[in-house]
Amino acid sequence: MKLTVITIAYNSAKDIGRTIESVLAQEQGETPWAIEYLIIDGASNDDTVAIAESYIPAMADKGIDYRISSEPDKGIYDAMNKGIGLATGDVIGILNSGDWYEPIAAATAADTFAGTGCDLMYANIRMHKRDGSTFVKKARQRRYQTSRDWNHPTTFVRAELYRQYPFRCLGIHDDYGFFLQMRQQGRHIVTVDKVLADFVMGGASNRKDFKAARKRIADRYRYCYRINGYSRLYLMECVAIEAAKMLLG
Q1: Centroid of chain to Cα 87
Q2: Is the model's pTM score more than 0.90?
Q3: pLDDT higher at 67 or 247
Q4: Cα dihedral 144→148→151→156 (10° resolution)
């Protein structure tokens, strides 16, 4: 099985190394896999590209097909779509710069797709707070859908679905919108009760700012739930998530 991992980066010199090294550290499992690793940089003006290029020899030693693209884009989801367009793998995972995989991530993805024939899988994630503490956000599926049960850095998707349904580039939650689209279509979705990735809190989706929170509520409601045919009652879910971020961090 060929897995494509896409990392989106922009002025990420501080933390892209950790992300890249986590891909290098992947372990084989029961299902043999190969990795194609794409760095999609948005024309950074720091050392992001130079740092990414410094890993070319290590990637070659591991037999990883490693490519770096750096050019202006129209935002994170435009960059993801560019990466998807370049991908040649059977299954695609998207790991943004600053996040990192656990060593079992690729093997778990390969084993899960081979064993279940799923269209999309996702797993638990370890969340890192600014004070150094961590907690595990579980992957679950429930009749009442909430993003509290879904973790994008642990998500792997059949490549043809990403190509058929590219990110809409409408808001800051387009990845969750794609997941809801797959769910509404009745795609075969599997959750795995393992921690496969780590995420550092404090980015655009967690910033404690009332104006930003209002925009996140509107984006999630319009471009995730309503665009995919979910009830207007999901507005309460959107508000509740932002309230929790304000109170709990």
Answers
A1: 15
A2: yes
A3: 67
A4: 0
**HEC letters along the chain:** CEEEEEEEECCCCCCHHHHHHHHHCCCCCCCCCEEEEEEEECCCCCCHHHHHHCCHHHHHHCCCEEEEEECCCCCHHHHHHHHHHHCCCCEEEECCECEEECCCHHHHHHHHHHHHCCCEEEEEEEEECCCCCEEEECCCCCCCCCHHHCCHHHCEEEHHHHHHCCCCCCCCCHHHHHHHHHHHCCCCEEEEEEEEEEEECCCCCCCCCHHHHHHHHHHHHHHHHHHHCCCCCHHHHHHHHHHHHHHHC
Buried/exposed code over 77-107 (b: 16+ C-beta within 10 A; e: otherwise): bbbbbbbbeebebbbbbbbbbbbbbbebbbb
Nearest to 150 by CA among 187, 190, 184: 190
pLDDT for 212 equals 87
Q: Are 194 and 108 in contact (CB under 8 A)?
A: yes
DSSP bridge partners of 8: 40
Tokens of 40: 């999609």
Placement of tokens 């299954």 in the chain = 91
Question: Which residue do the tokens 């739930």 mark?
Answer: 225
Quick check: 23 pLDDT over 70? yes
The 10s digit of each residue's pLDDT in 207-248 is 567 888 999 999 999 999 999 999 898 899 899 888 887 765
